[in-house]
Amino acid sequence: MIEANSLTKHYDDAVAVDGIDLVVRPGYVTGFLGPNGAGKSTTMRMILGLDRPTSGTVTVNGRSYTELAAPLREVGALLEANALHPGRTARHHLRQLATSNRIPASRVDEVLDLVGLSDVADRRAGTFSLGMGQRLGIAGALIGDPAVVVLDEPVNGLDPEGIRWVRSLARRLADEGRTVFISSHLMSEMALMADHLVVVGRGRILADCSMEQFMQDHATSTVRVRTPDPAAAAHALPRAELAREGDALVVRGMGAAEIGDALFGAGVRVHELAPQRSSLEDAFMTLTADAVQFHAASHTPEDVPA
Ligand SMILES: Nc1ncnc2c1ncn2[C@@H]1O[C@H](COP(=O)(O)OP(=O)(O)OP(=O)(O)O)[C@@H](O)[C@H]1O
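That is the input. Now the predicted structure with adenosine-5'-triphosphate docked in place:
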């Protein structure tokens, strides 16, 4: 597993990671989620010994990366800036990784097969599409059959088929009992992939819980009500918070049954009564709103008619 204690990284006057405490456990896909600049890549680089913490510690299986006797056998990583030599074939690239880490050459064909690159194993990496390059990077991460897998934005730039593939691979690796730690800035992607979520903003942890708990804590429920008489409906629901959305009202703070009963009691005709949960994307945006460095302009819902 991965464990961070008060992990901190300063760059000149910028604080990239600000005292993170974290345990990433085996058997789960843990999503590491945060807006751009939240500190995800920096944290991953420190896990992999590529950046030194300013203070605090981070360990893989109880040791810091530099103390691992055979790092690639313990932790495999796909980082955003994974360098692939364009003139080298996929097989050559993996062979070199295997040799320099005393991993049997037979493992090269196994991982090529695992990531679906067997047919193009002798093509130069420079001719690969982005998706093929990501697969090759993931093959490199898995070559040592590591118990811990760290993937930084693995679905960036992939097509839907590639995204599905990464998702099912992550699931398989976790089901095999491995620790799978995957960063993304897309909540929608994590919602489909992760069992557990760690959300960061401005270098700090904003949430660390199961996906289910995250939903419960952060996604709000609303009920969409369509009625030919919105003003009468608003009058009949004095306790609720209302907003107008097209020709419907969005009601917060009351359940569908309660709303239906209140409107029936007040003689207000109802054409639609639909419970809705805000998407995880909304929950994520709400949670990280203060941590986002750059905002796009947004608009607020129209007021309910008096
Ligand atoms: N080498 C560096 N020198 C100076 N500042 C850096 C360096 N690396 C990262 N930072 C800063 O640290 C902060 C965190 O960056 P980091 O790349 O870890 O975030 P991130 O969550 O991975 O974002 P993204 O999704 O955009 O990759 C940012 O403000 C970034 O500008």
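Residues 294-306 have pLDDT under 50 and may be disordered.
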